[in-house]
Amino acid sequence: MAAPRCHVGAGARWEAAAGTGTGEGTEEEEEAEETEEEEEASAALRSVFPRDPELFADAFPVERRYRLCGRVLRIAQHHGPRLGPAASVWEAALFLCRYLEEQRFDFRGRTVIELGAGTGIVGILVALLGGDVTITDQPVALDQIRENVRLNFPAEGGRPRVRALLWGRDEGSFRREYEVILGSDIVYHPPSFPLLLGTLRHLCGPRSFALLCANAGGDAGARRFFRQMLPPYFRIQLLRREAEEEIEIYRVTRRGGGDEDPIEEGGGTHPPQLGVVRGGAVPDLGVP
Question: Helix, strand, coil shares of the chain as percentages rounded to 5?
């Protein structure tokens, strides 16, 4: 973007006049020249920064469309200090959505809960794919999620539920053993890790699995959560890694008494019991 024209002050003009040897001029002429140049500078600034209050509001909404799984999702994002990071669709959420699309997950009739949903894009996609979905986040984010649910479900049927869930406090009011737990970009704030761990332990039963997508780039905290905090209680499998952005998708299941190695490095594939449609069959989503 080009910068506005520079304001040349009266002092510079006097130096130029002195160099020519004239040195003539009245105070009225000086004031007129200054006023003229100030008006020109103001006009230049207005051309760069239009007087549109929406541009400088504390919050401003945008609506974007995302094509996923053969559907077009409309997602409103209310950027501003009130919602902070919860206002945006982050790359980890899109990476998880594309993974579900690529692997052709089948969620029909399955109980699903999304944690720390932000815009709700992941849970909304899964609900459109037939899941019985509950989308959760802190209370401040719920209005944005409800708006996005209405945008993508004009009719009442099939709409996901939207509920507040403060980790470490509210999970007791939720059922145990959801079949699928989803989370994207929720592992980034180390003080919240023990609370998230407790929430996962409540929601995950023996036949549950979680798909957690995290940005591990330059963040030792996320790696510590998956490699140190979860393994005493869960079996961890790395399903997919995006090298450039350093985004990782993990499959998390409750550990059984006979598990020897709680951490497994995946090769970009996963067992069929995760609900992938292969050859027209619809295998069970649960973990045997």
Answer: 35, 25, 35
- Rounded CA-CA distance 134/245 in Å is 29
Show the CA angle centred on residue 83, arms to residues 66 and 75, nearest 5°.
Answer: 15
One DSSP character per residue, 157-226 reads TTPPEEEE--TTTSGGGS-S-EEEEEEES----GGGHHHHHHHHHHHEEEEEEEEEEEE-TT-HHHHHII
Q: Report DSSP letters for 73-109, one per residue.
A: EEEEEEESTTTGGGGS--HHHHHHHHHHHHHTB--TT
Q: How far apart are CA 76 and CA 109, in angstroms?
A: 27
Predicted confidence band of residue 11 (pLDDT cuts 50, 70, 90):
very low
The amino acid sitting at 252 is V
**pLDDT tens per residue across span 192-215:** 999 999 999 999 999 999 999 998
Q: How many CB atoms lie within 10 A of CB 116?
A: 23
Phi-psi region of 275 (alpha: psi -120 to 50; beta: other; left: phi over 0): left
Beginning with the edge strand found earlier in the chain, give each strand of the sheet holding 204-215 in spatial order: 161-164, 132-137, 111-115, 178-184, 204-215, 247-254, 234-242, 263-265
